[in-house]
Prior knowledge:
CATH architecture of the largest domain in chain A: 3-Layer(aba) Sandwich
Number of strands of chain A: 12
Number of domains of chain A: 2
Structural class of chain A: alpha/beta
Number of helices of chain A: 10
Order of helices and strands of chain A: EHEEHEHEHEEHHHHEHEEEEH
Oligomer: homodimer
Shape of chain A: globular
Strand content of chain A: 15-25%
Distance between the termini of chain A: 10 Å
Amino acid sequence: MSDNSHNILIIGFGTVGQGFFELFNSKKKELGLQNVRISEIVDMRYGHIKSPGEDLLKNLPSQKTPPVDVLKVIRESFCDIVCEFTWVDFKTGGPGYDHIKTALSSGKHVITTNKGPITTHYDELNELAIKNRAELRFKGTVMAGTPSFNILKLLPGAKVLRFRGILNGTTNYILNEMSIGKSFEAALRDAQQKGYAEADPTNDVDGFDSAAKCAIISKILGWPHDFNGIEIKGIREVTAQEARNGTKLLVYGDPEKAYVKPVKLPDDDLLSSIRGVTNAIEFEIDTLGKIYSVGPGAGRIETAQAAMTDLLDIIS
Amino acid sequence: MSDNSHNILIIGFGTVGQGFFELFNSKKKELGLQNVRISEIVDMRYGHIKSPGEDLLKNLPSQKTPPVDVLKVIRESFCDIVCEFTWVDFKTGGPGYDHIKTALSSGKHVITTNKGPITTHYDELNELAIKNRAELRFKGTVMAGTPSFNILKLLPGAKVLRFRGILNGTTNYILNEMSIGKSFEAALRDAQQKGYAEADPTNDVDGFDSAAKCAIISKILGWPHDFNGIEIKGIREVTAQEARNGTKLLVYGDPEKAYVKPVKLPDDDLLSSIRGVTNAIEFEIDTLGKIYSVGPGAGRIETAQAAMTDLLDIIS
């Protein structure tokens, strides 16, 4: 918009939604975003909140509200930017898929940190965005706010030959704990207690989360690997001995193939030094050889940073 | 320019200048730079070359040419972008300082990979750029084309609390070789034979090159550390034992202080895993904690990539 004013609709007000709300309000002044407002929030628990005050997080309604017709809200909202922060579903894309489709179809820009819709429907959503002259941004789907595929914007003309990564903090944490003596089960329980792993750890330990990120990066690079075409092996069969020897859950992609599987990395491989829940990506490119970006891959404010990065990209 | 046409003047046609010439010509088509030309080159050895053909590198004049009045060429050139690729001088800024000053004063944008002028005269050159509405870009002064301070562009609103880095490949290579049994002298000779170290290795082994990068990053972050105010200790006194124990030449900066000195890094510090001539930088920021960028810090095409990154920033 020519007056640089923007209105944001947040869908999904859990950890990431609230983190974004907090980060946006704390940074908007120094970023010169006085004309950008979070004007609506829709959430299963909190219902439809209009014109939220900056103190919203202290005054969240405690009672569950009646269901809201989210697609109707999206269509009828005067907001020009929709932030989709609902839960991940790798099978269908989940409600996030419908939210994003509806937003793009009505010409609204979309920022999401939700891997489900991007993994399952990238091509369709990307075409829809182009057709409706809307932006579709999803930095937060890979390594939260830590620079990942977006570092390629800093390398105009560079050609990616292949990439490798440790893109799931939960499994890296579990393998790390196994390497110092814990059983898989004990390490998993530990990860769950620390909030790294969910009650149903399938998406992490069976490699689906890593494969989703592999598919997303491949799509961005114009490579043909769909989520369903990626060879996936998780960490359930990794032995204590293998964990001690430096086995990591490796994500790999090149124009010909892509996989996720436990791989023993040599000691002089930088990826072998990635500890705990930290994520890392290596791009091998024609002009520089191997470059790496390393940092957190999850977290409330860490993921909110990704949405801020996308927001500034869209409005500037 | 509204028609998106640009003309580039290259000053200094050694390793970096020739690397940039080659990279620019190989990438210009896919980057849509048909209206961007390298229209002039000035070099001590090759003189003043006008409208060079793409096959220039195969047809470089073998005889030394008479001296050229470079400042006059800069002033009178119709080019709008000057690439400064001459040699480093940390005492005065060298001829590069005069070249950049003259270019900015005549309203021309400047791209440089030359640490000398930026280290010694950052404030003055920056003000001159602003006053003349010209861009001054110097990505290549820190970690060549590998993302370094420019990753902060991917993190709007994020506040840097401190940074640490291994920003000199030569000393990291020497310490690495010492850690596996070589003497300092043997490792230095080896580095010189491999082309990592210069005949006079002072700038590298005494820490000046690292300190220059420390000063440049500090300036970008708005911190008060000048090159001359940075505590500098090189690697000449590092013992074999210290090298084996993981001592690295560490660059550190926060708003209060900045230094370059050999530091023993613990094994679980990612910077301790940086081998050979590879460079690495860690930024600790409010929204993400510690993030890292790792990759080559020197090289012909690697440094040319930095100038390409700056070029695309300026013209797009």
